[in-house]
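Hi everyone, sorry if this is the wrong subforum. Our group has a chain we'd like a structural model of before ordering constructs, and none of us has done structure prediction before. Sequence below.
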Amino acid sequence: MTLCKVIGTLVATQKNEHLKDQKILIVQPIDLEGNLIGRDVLALDTVDAGVGDTVLIIQEGQSAAQVIKDKKAPVHSVIVAVVDGLDVVIKS
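Answer:
Right subforum, don't worry. Here is the predicted structure as C-alpha cells:
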C-alpha cells in the first residue's frame, strides 16, 4: 500500500467498458510528513475520496481487480481507504 494525496480528478468521455461506472482520481505519493514525493498516479476510487484527501492505494493488478470485483478491468491502482488521521511515533 502507498500513502497518497488526491490532487485531481480525471474526466474521460470514452472509457473501457469495464470502467464506465468508475471514478478516476489523480493521486501523488506522500511521505509520513505529508510532503509530495514520486510521480502522479491514476487510481480508481472505491471509497468516494475527493481532492485534498489523504488516501491509501494498492498498486498491483490482481489485487486491484479483486477490490473492484472485475478481473477483466484494465486497472493497476485502486484507492482502498481515506486516511482520517496519522500518528507517527519515532523511537530513539
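For your construct planning: The radius of gyration is 14 Å. The chain has one domain: 2-82.
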